[in-house]
Design brief:
This protein is an alpha+beta fold. It has a single domain, classed as Hotdog Thioesterase (Thiol Ester Dehydrase, Chain A, Roll). It has helices at residues 17-35, 41-57, 125-142, 205-212, and strands at 94-100, 103-110, 148-156, 166-176, 179-188, 191-201. The chain has a 6-stranded antiparallel beta sheet with strand order 1-2-4-5-6-3, with helices on one face. The protein is globular.
């Protein structure tokens, strides 16, 4: 999906199909580096050198630091560590907005590979929490109630497996002034692996401008 809600579009200069293709290739490389054990040392060295050369080819000299530049907040989603199509760190969950019984619901689906492992064979609990935080934030925006995370409580019901398509549902439960109370659930098939309760806070206008810059 191109945007989380009205007024927060992805950056067209960054979120291109070509960059998404690059991110997918790097994601495959990360998964291979985390999974394949029987690889000759010379091959590992050769691949590492090729990766370094490709990094320079993209225009970043190895001694130039991170290359990070301050950006407008509106291009966050393509770089998201959970849903970002341009982020090789992302497991790349696809999401959509639905309307169920008068409520806005965001549903995301995706698979966590070897890079996200905690206990052998299962997703690290920190990544489960990160996923909840991200999908809840999108649900808040989609319902017209954007806010910053004040508290996130995660209930881990059972281990969440790697290499299986997972489903995450999130929605705003209620709004109390500047406080948005939201809920989310994660499923492996029909089995719930975790659920979360989030309390988000709409910052005062002067703080919102300080954090994110002026908005129309």
């Amino acid at each position: 999906m191109a945007e989380a809600g009205p007024g927060i579009p992805d950056s067209p200069a960054f979120a291109t199909p070509e960059r998404a293709e690059l991110a997918a290739a790097v994601r495959d490389l990360i998964d291979a580096a985390m999974s394949l054990e029987e690889v000759e040392p010379a091959t590992l060295t050769d691949v590492a050198q090729q990766v370094q050369q490709l990094t320079v080819r993209l225009g970043r000299p190895r001694d130039s630091g991170s290359g990070y530049q301050h950006r407008d907040h509106s291009d966050y989603l393509p770089r998201s560590p959970v849903v970002g199509e341009a982020s090789p760190l992302s497991p790349r969950l696809d999401w959509e907005v639905r309307h169920e019984d008068g409520r806005v619901v965001v549903e995301a689906r995706g698979t966590f590979g070897a890079a996200y492992e905690g206990p052998p064979g299962f997703v690290h609990g920190g990544w489960v929490a990160c996923t909840f935080d991200e999908i809840l934030g999108i649900a808040n925006i989609a319902s017209g109630n954007p806010g910053m995370t004040g508290r996130l409580t995660v209930h881990y019901r059972r281990p969440t497996p790697l290499f299986r398509e997972l489903r995450v549902r999130a929605f705003v439960d209620r709004v109390e002034g500047r406080r948005i109370l939201s809920r989310a659930e994660m499923y492996d098939g029909d089995s719930m692996t975790a659920e979360a309760d989030g309390v988000f806070v709409q910052p005062r206008p002067e703080l919102a401008e300080k954090y994110f810059g002026p908005r129309d």
